[in-house]
Design a protein that fits this description.
Length: about 280
């Protein structure tokens, strides 16, 4: 017979003290409101700033302060648990902060046709939708027949033939981080061709936007007055999310020029960085 003070599972309760940090308390109880999201991303920014700008000494001070003196502990093999960056004397970036390394990388990657500061590098890696979704929707894409179109591919699936887009249009099977606003829908879209986007600062809110299109798309062989090139550069606004989920918005003022390096053709625009008033 069970003792009178024994409790069944349904009668047991787990008690704990509320966390003094309001953000962590919301995390523990699963509360997700607008203030939580704002505080969460602000914490990420502060952590990123510390990570980028701190050297080995600052890391050590912070570790001692927030780990209760456990900084520098080793396992049974003598290996330290902590690894905070380029502290190996043999590493090419030894003694540098992450910020200094990123600045060097930006300088190496930036185009040298101007002296403007490179503010952002956005990778435009697409999220694959997949052929299965195309088949589910019964989509059949047929490219416009012009002398500028590249080859058309036939894909077989379950003995059915689906005539798919050529290389310039096949990217409709993906969702891209860069979003473009234009007056009219077009077949050849710069947001589906670009591998990454550079944004440079001219002054105040004025910016230079550089779209890097891989040479495999062969846009470099097309003339400036080509209908495809006109479709590519006919854009009004650009939207893209940064690593913290914050949207950057740009209004384009004019198309500047096309230039080519060993791997990409670059389409350059002049524009302004717009203040965000809402979610995209």
């Amino acid at each position: 017979m069970a003792k009178s003070h024994d409790l069944g599972e349904k009668d047991k309760h787990v008690q704990r003290h509320r966390h003094q940090n309001k953000l962590l308390e919301k995390f523990y109880i699963g509360q997700r409101d607008e203030k939580y999201v704002q505080d969460y991303y602000e914490l990420l920014r502060k952590a990123d700033k510390f990570k980028r700008e701190s050297n080995a000494k600052k890391y050590e001070i912070a570790a001692w302060k927030y780990t209760g003196g456990h900084y520098g502990k080793v396992d049974e093999s003598g290996k330290k648990y902590e690894h905070f960056g380029f502290f190996d004397e043999k590493h090419k970036n030894a003694g540098k902060t992450l910020k200094e390394v990123f600045e060097t990388e930006y300088e190496e990657r930036r185009l040298k046709d101007d002296n403007y500061q490179l503010l952002y590098i956005f990778n435009n890696t697409p999220i694959e939708v997949g052929l299965s979704k195309v088949i589910e929707k019964g989509i059949k894409e047929v490219p416009i027949k012009t002398t500028e179109n590249i080859h058309t591919e036939i894909i077989e699936w379950n003995d059915s033939k689906f005539e798919m887009m050529n290389n310039l249009n096949k990217s409709k099977l993906f969702e891209f981080p860069i979003k473009i606003v234009r007056e009219n829908d077009v077949l050849n879209k710069i947001e589906e061709l670009s591998e990454y986007l550079h944004v440079k600062k001219i002054g105040f809110e004025y910016r230079i936007l550089e779209f890097f299109v891989p040479l495999k798309f062969k846009t470099d062989v097309l003339k400036d007055d080509s209908s495809i090139i006109n479709e590519i550069i006919n854009i009004n606004e650009v939207y893209v999310f940064d690593e913290y989920g914050e949207r950057k918005s740009f209004g384009l003022l004019k198309f500047e020029k096309r230039i080519k390096n060993n791997t990409h053709e670059i389409f350059k625009f002049e524009g302004i960085e717009m203040e965000e008033l809402g979610k995209y």
